Amino acid sequence: MAGALSHIRVLDLTRVLAGPWATQTLADLGADVIKVERPVAGDDTRHWGPPWVADGEGRPTSDSAYFTSTNRNKRSITVDLSRPEGQALVRELAAGADVLVENFKVGDLARHGLGYEDLRALNPRLVYCSVTGYGQTGPYANRPGYDYVFQGEGGLMGITGEREDLPGGGPMKVGIAVTDVLTGLYAAIGILAALEARNVTGLGQHIDMGLLDTIVAFGSNQIANYFATGVPPGLVGNAHPNLAPYQPFRTADGRIIVACANDGQYKRLCQVLDRADLADDPRYQTMGGRSQNRAALCAQIERTMREHPTSYWAGRLIEAGIPSGPINNYKQVFEHPQVIHRGMKVDLPHAGGGVTSVVASPLRLSDTPVEYRLAPPTLGQHTAEILQQVLGKSSEEIERLARKRVI
């Protein structure tokens, strides 16, 4: 069977990460995603290198590795949206699309006659998703912003990092642009919901995604503590605000994460450590007690764990059914037996020659599995193909648009 969304066409007017992550998710599920890019420059992230994608001879191309992370399974067309003829092409494409995703500043596309109200008049069934920093409304709606800003402004950095009183302490951003990725995922969910609603109403709708909204929602379980107590949660480093022991511990030759989420797991940990005293200590017999006395408890656990290497503890912890694991770099991740078994690395032939490696989708559908049809496209790789197949343009018309630098 074809992909779950193989009957859906998506017009992708996004760049950088949040929007492209949403459209790549749809593309992985089978949608025909047409990525509209600026002539010459293209998506900003094409230039976010080094490292660069290599051609068949191993030489660097003009496309960054970063760009490949979020643009597979898409076709690229270049259109100058500042030109009336370019705007007309996008309107033609939107008239036959199911979904349009854009991440322009609030009001920018409307000035070109490409806003939601403009395109809804042409195609009432169109699901139109806007991705911006602060959403379409409110006092900050016109402000720009990137993931880093929202990790700070939305509270994530206020709970991420070691305590201020410890060496290296202070707020720390997450190593991945998590606000962008999460917004892309929420956008994809919203689009799928709107498509399902369209099956009932026959009409599309406007989806308003804000990065600040997303990162605030992401903090829900920590925010619940604040709502309950009135006290904002703070920095706890690699510990958990509600659970203990639930953090990395030093061993004789490295570190290992131990995550005990209930009393039974804690008792088994004490058995593995041969520390009956910790199991019998009344301070540590409940999760609440362990959380309140975490510093003393974790110091005792680490004292014992430093007596043996990581490999010794890893085997014993797993045998005892205690969630635990190493802290891997990405080289180690892709040597991990489970990661290899699940096929989390996919190699795709690149149009410029050579092979582009991408991270597989985590989605596993039994009847409509994700397919890796297209490598991340070169800039404008499919312009003529799309204009001919989708809009029925003649070769002469395409040549004329190219001469005028509309495409």
TrEMBL record:
For this protein, the record's SUPFAM superfamilies field holds: CoA-transferase family III (CaiB/BaiF)
Report the domain of life of the source organism: Bacteria
Q: What Pfam families does the entry give? A: CoA_transf_3
Keyword annotations: Transferase
What is this protein's record name?
Answer: CaiB/BaiF CoA-transferase family protein
- The record lists the organism as Pigmentiphaga soli
